[in-house]
Amino acid sequence: MASNPDIPTLIDKNLSFSIPAKHCRGRAVRLGPLLDDILSAHNYPPQIKSLLAEAVCLTSLLGALLKEEDAQLTLQAQTESGVISLLACDYKDGDVRGYVQFDAERLVAQPLEPSLMALFGKGYLAITFDHPAPRGRSQGIVPLEGGSLSEAVQNYFMQSEQIPTVIRVALEIEGDRTIAGGLLVQHLPDGEDGKERLHVRMNHPEWEHVAIMGSSAKDEELVNPDLPLEDLLWRLFSESDEVRVMSGKPLVKGCRCNEDHIRDVIARFPKEDKENMVGDDGTISIDCAFCSKKFTITSASLNN
Question: Measured between alpha carbons, how far is 127 from 76 in angstroms, rounded to an integer?
Fold first, then answer.
């Protein structure tokens, strides 16, 4: 395995890897304090806590696929009639955030490990890549189907992007402590990451072997903080002549709410709408759903 000896095996940091001989690329991540920070913003019930932890792990994996500075990845799962009405997570330059909007009364009737269908009903999954100019925005939307959110994201790449993909996510939740581990492996038939893919074969022989080995990652391995991710990758893909491992960006909770941003958003509304937002005390109160911070904006400051 070719790797950088200076890469520290840390929680809350992505690893990028490639298997040149198999024309495959991948990302691996293990999250700890980042998850606890995000989950503590709201008093989430166990079912929602598990789902959001999985979603944050997936967002960290997908965000690590971005190459440009200031590029952003947004993952949204939404429905009109499910227990969960909205799940939203995003990644930008190593900053990760996420939150879930749900019906607490209907959730009570659900088991501790509800199915994806039980939580969302008939919903859809949207994954959006926002790249700096000139590439701009690209988005794929697929039905929210599968046994888990990870399976739904895997299906997204197979259906919308037509990229053979294996995704594995595992969770360990003990009280207020949560660990998530994730692995994403993809086949790029044209060989080099970033080139236009001239064809796609979901049953390509070199991909079949990598897919089997990637799928063999065990839950306890993915969440074990004492097992370096580099060692796990070596165990999974040791039959390959070379596995290149590269350090990724540290991951932190990165809610981008602040008073200047909120003022800028409010300023875009028509004058009448802004006047209707102002309370009897002459202020506009804004709650950030991602981090639970509350902001009070005076009407006078909007006129400056």
Answer: 6
pLDDT per residue over 250-285, tens digit each? 999 987 777 777 777 777 778 887 778 888 888 888
For residues 15 and 277, give the distance between their C-alpha atoms in angstroms, rounded to a whole number. Answer: 45
Distance (Å) of CA 90 to CA 109, 173, 177: 29, 22, 22
Please give the Cα distance from 222 to 170 (Å, whole number): 6
C-alpha separations of 37 from 31, 53, 130, 180 in Å: 11, 11, 25, 13
Query: Which of 219, 254, 227, 239 has its CA nearest to residue 15?
Result: 227
Residue 168 φ then ψ, to 5°: -125, 130
Distance CA 96, CA 251 (A): 7
pLDDT in tens, 190-238: 544 544 443 455 567 788 889 999 999 999 999 999 999 999 999 999 8
pTM of the entire predicted model: 0.85
Give the distance from CA 65 to its chain's centroid. Answer: 11
pLDDT of residue 180: 97
